[in-house]
Design brief:
Elements: E1 5-8, H1 18-33, E2 37-42, H2 52-65, E3 71-75, H3 80-92, E4 96-99, H4 103-115, H5 131-139, E5 145-148, E6 155-160, E7 164-169, E8 177-179, H6 187-197, E9 202-206, H7 213-223, E10 229-233, H8 253-258, H9 263-274, H10 286-292, H11 307-320, H12 323-336, H13 349-359, H14 366-377, H15 385-391, H16 397-410, H17 416-430, H18 434-446, H19 454-461, H20 463-470, H21 473-483
Parallel strand pairs: 1-2, 2-3, 9-10
Antiparallel strand pairs: 4-5, 5-8, 6-7
Bound molecules: glutamic acid (GLU).
Amino acid sequence: MAQVRVRFAPSPTGHLHLGAARTALFNWLFAQGNKGKFILRIEDTDIERSSQEMTKGIVAGLEWLGLEWDEGPYYQSERLNLYREAAQQLVAKGKAYYCYCSPEEIKLRKAKARSKGEFWRYDRRCYYLSEAEKKRFEAENRSRAIRFLVPGQEEIKFDDLIHGQIKVKSKNIEDFVLLRSDGYPTYHLSVVIDDLSMGITHVIRGDDHISNTPKQILLYEALGVPLPRFGHLPLILGPDKKKLSKRHGVTSVLEFRNQGYLPLAVLNFLAQMSWSPGDEERIYTVEEMVARFSFDRVSKGSPIYNLSKLEWLNHQLINQMSAEELFPVIRENLIRFSLWSEDLDSDRKDWFLGLIGLLKERSKTINELAKNCRPFLSDDFPLEEEAVNKYLTHPQLPELLDKLKNDFEQLKDFRPDLTERVLRQRAEEEGVKAALLIHALRVLLLGMKVSPGIFDVLKYMGKEKTLQRMKKLPTMVTQIQRRE
Ligand code: GLU
């Protein structure tokens, strides 16, 4: 087999949504697994709808996922001459013809046919123009497009890598436009010319292009060149079984980054939506995915988008990663929220790694991990109103906590076994349940009801901060009561 060359060819008219990212991933995996090349091509010929900002976002999304390309990005807007020449050549070979019909005329003809209940497709009027008529139109300087002359009686067949054999009759295809009158190519022309000139061996794209493939095959045939293989990936559906869209929440890959998902979790999520890398659900490394990827394990059916699966994968991954591995990711996140201080890189690094180790198990996303770190790094953290009302309003608490504070003050070391002993002794002496003090401390220190074991929390909070926050009890209670 010739060297595999695949491409990802997004139109920068929207974000890198999930379907597109999955297409990029499968192309990339296939290239990697076959020691092939992965090419990035930006299909920006729709000048009105394309934007540089979208291109930047798509590129950033691919980079974030680690889907590096070997060639490109190529921009179709910089290759217009290539398409124009190809269209002219097809005219010269008698495979395409000039069409002088204006869009308005076509609309009228279509409407007329429809009003008679007739089906309309381009009627080849310009193909049958006499030489004299053509001359007249040229002399009038009429604008002209180039249409492809679809052969009448062909059966177009291709063996789709995912769907198997697909057959379409050419008589159902109208003479489609290749080059618009403004000189811009249609998608069919530019995609074929580019796939050809870039030596693409496998065209892997979304199911929404399946009906375009027969037209493109006709073009390859007209050009007299061999076909690439085609593979169409099933469309991702929302939980309501409709095409996935903004309505269903997050659909752009970078949005997942902003919400604290890790690239490897997103890659597994995308991969496992249509393909099963193995028999069990787990996080696969990129290397494992590359080694296992093949089109025969890609299913034809449309997968349903399920955010809780991504949460689960991300949670698994965070748990599997060591604190050292999580460090750079959480660092970046804390910088974004202005919670980072230099000494976390140096003097307090070990402390911080220990803290990550303590909190990661409870964090489904990096943002959640950062949120859980917040009370350890800053005095500005949210208080859960319900937690304050439930655990800080016991009438005996001010006195009890005052005593406990004195006990803690005596401790030279804030080791978990020591703080635990002191707290339990105090509870016993006062005839109250240790839980009363534990719950209160948790809310005072962290603002919330649930956390890792309180004595570990105390260790990482440290004596000074703990005592400081214990003094704040009256203020916290009045703060919340005032809010009510
Ligand atoms: N530019 C097309 C799109 O974004 C993809 C073209 C192709 O893969 O053939 O849908």
